[in-house]
């Protein structure tokens, strides 16, 4: 039992949301810093591009698994304690990376300290905590919270690239460890109060003239396992495609002769537009539903990936990177909406966690796979085509599910 002195939607809740944004910005740095140091790490350790991409892959796997573990800790002890654990792990992880003697030790530290115990402490626990502190404005509050992840992607790459060029990647990592560890621990102390034990449930307003198929034991007319499996495959596929530009844009710009600094700027622009996309997608989901939002985002992401093929000039790449960020930011949150719209509410938490983990595994697989395709072909052209193919798989699943829902709507309307 615990005493809660403040209510949902209060000024305290707003203050807490601001602190949450800062925590997400600091704690999520691990997801993006490793992409920026990829060229420097590859050169330092003398490894192939696929091997240099391995730390990102293992970090994302650790991030996915760690989110489940940290979420359970937050449910039991409150969000402050996993945040403090994450602060220690993230700080020590960065510092340990700065002393790594090879790609294997570097990758292991990324997976365990930076991913599993570090950055994982901020995403799932903070999103869950925010949802308990807001009722009337829960949707926008959760969107703002989740956008902190992209804010980290917008501000950290150029900062880290600057210090890599001036003091080297090892000193940069050591400094990141000291700063992020202390900042995250200090901010975590503001999150001591537990959420209200009982929160009124906000009932969504019905949309006039819209026929919907609610949650059931047969979502999309399929068994629970089959429906869950299709969403997991779709989540993996869309994020394999998503990882190609996000993980390799810095290395791609270096190969084109523009330098790693330009690539870091492009990554920053991409993720800054992703913030806008993530917020707008919540607005769109409320009007057309999660499944249509997923399909819309997938189609637009595919368009952006195709545009990377003919355009490799500096200005066009900046434009395409911005479009890619604007198109793809709302894809992953739409899976949570889909699960809540079509699956039994009592199982929503576990099923959302499973699908989101698959999206993270997709990012991990895509980061490594793009590097491997580059090693085999000597060009990122084939890697972009590989991403497009995975994106088409995601689109086909979204279309299939949408058609099944429409048939169910027609059947429901035809039933007297």
UniProtKB/TrEMBL annotation:
<feature type="domain" description="Major facilitator superfamily (MFS) profile">
    <location>
        <begin position="16"/>
        <end position="406"/>
    </location>
</feature>
<feature type="transmembrane region" description="Helical">
    <location>
        <begin position="107"/>
        <end position="128"/>
    </location>
</feature>
<dbReference type="InterPro" id="IPR036259">
    <property type="entry name" value="MFS_trans_sf"/>
</dbReference>
<dbReference type="InterPro" id="IPR011701">
    <property type="entry name" value="MFS"/>
</dbReference>
<feature type="transmembrane region" description="Helical">
    <location>
        <begin position="350"/>
        <end position="370"/>
    </location>
</feature>
<feature type="transmembrane region" description="Helical">
    <location>
        <begin position="264"/>
        <end position="281"/>
    </location>
</feature>
<keyword id="KW-1133">Transmembrane helix</keyword>
<dbReference type="InterPro" id="IPR050327">
    <property type="entry name" value="Proton-linked_MCT"/>
</dbReference>
<dbReference type="Pfam" id="PF07690">
    <property type="entry name" value="MFS_1"/>
</dbReference>
<protein>
    <submittedName>
        <fullName>MFS transporter</fullName>
    </submittedName>
</protein>
<keyword id="KW-0472">Membrane</keyword>
<feature type="transmembrane region" description="Helical">
    <location>
        <begin position="220"/>
        <end position="244"/>
    </location>
</feature>
<feature type="transmembrane region" description="Helical">
    <location>
        <begin position="54"/>
        <end position="74"/>
    </location>
</feature>
<feature type="transmembrane region" description="Helical">
    <location>
        <begin position="382"/>
        <end position="403"/>
    </location>
</feature>
<feature type="transmembrane region" description="Helical">
    <location>
        <begin position="12"/>
        <end position="34"/>
    </location>
</feature>
<feature type="transmembrane region" description="Helical">
    <location>
        <begin position="293"/>
        <end position="311"/>
    </location>
</feature>
<feature type="transmembrane region" description="Helical">
    <location>
        <begin position="317"/>
        <end position="338"/>
    </location>
</feature>
<feature type="transmembrane region" description="Helical">
    <location>
        <begin position="171"/>
        <end position="190"/>
    </location>
</feature>
<feature type="transmembrane region" description="Helical">
    <location>
        <begin position="81"/>
        <end position="101"/>
    </location>
</feature>
<feature type="transmembrane region" description="Helical">
    <location>
        <begin position="140"/>
        <end position="159"/>
    </location>
</feature>
<keyword id="KW-0812">Transmembrane</keyword>
<dbReference type="InterPro" id="IPR020846">
    <property type="entry name" value="MFS_dom"/>
</dbReference>
């Amino acid at each position: 039992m615990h005493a809660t002195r403040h209510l949902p939607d209060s000024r305290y809740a707003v203050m807490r949301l601001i602190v949450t944004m800062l925590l997400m910005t600091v704690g999520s740095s691990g997801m993006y810093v490793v992409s920026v140091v990829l060229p420097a790490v590859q050169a330092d350790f003398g490894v192939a591009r696929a091997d240099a991409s391995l730390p990102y892959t293992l970090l994302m796997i650790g991030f996915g698994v760690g989110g489940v573990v940290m979420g359970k800790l937050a449910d039991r002890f409150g969000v402050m304690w996993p945040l403090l654990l994450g602060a220690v792990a993230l700080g020590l992880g960065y510092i340990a990376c700065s002393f790594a003697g090879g790609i294997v030790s570097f990758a292991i530290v990324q997976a365990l300290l930076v991913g599993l115990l570090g950055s994982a402490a901020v995403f799932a626990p903070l999103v869950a905590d925010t949802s308990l502190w807001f009722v009337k404005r829960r949707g926008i509050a959760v969107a703002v919270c989740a956008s902190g992840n992209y804010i980290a992607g917008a501000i950290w790459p150029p900062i880290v690239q600057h210090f890599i060029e001036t003091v080297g990647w090892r000193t940069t990592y050591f400094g990141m460890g000291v700063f992020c560890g202390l900042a995250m621990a200090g901010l975590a102390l503001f999150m001591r109060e537990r959420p209200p034990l009982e929160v009124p449930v906000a009932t969504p307003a019905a949309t006039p003239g819209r026929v919907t198929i609610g949650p059931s034991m047969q979502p999309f007319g399929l068994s629970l396992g089959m429906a869950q499996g299709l969403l997991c495959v779709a989540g993996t596929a869309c994020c394999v495609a998503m990882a190609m530009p996000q993980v390799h844009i810095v290395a791609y710009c270096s190969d084109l002769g523009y330098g790693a600094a330009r690539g870091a700027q492009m990554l920053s622009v991409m993720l800054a537009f992703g913030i806008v996309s993530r917020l707008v997608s919540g607005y769109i989901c409320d009007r057309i539903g999660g499944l249509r939002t997923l399909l819309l985002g997938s189609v637009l992401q595919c368009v952006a990936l195709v545009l990377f093929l003919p355009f490799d000039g500096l200005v066009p790449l900046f434009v395409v990177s911005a479009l890619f960020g604007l198109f793809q930011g709302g894809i992953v949150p739409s899976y949570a909406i889909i699960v809540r719209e079509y699956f039994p509410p009592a199982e929503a938490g576990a099923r959302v966690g499973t699908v989101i983990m698959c999206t993270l595994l997709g990012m991990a697989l895509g980061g490594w796979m793009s590097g491997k395709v580059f090693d085999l072909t000597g060009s990122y052209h084939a890697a972009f085509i590989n991403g497009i193919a995975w994106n088409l798989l995601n689109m086909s699943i979204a279309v299939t599910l949408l058609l099944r829902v429409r048939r169910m709507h027609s059947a429901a309307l035809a039933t007297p």
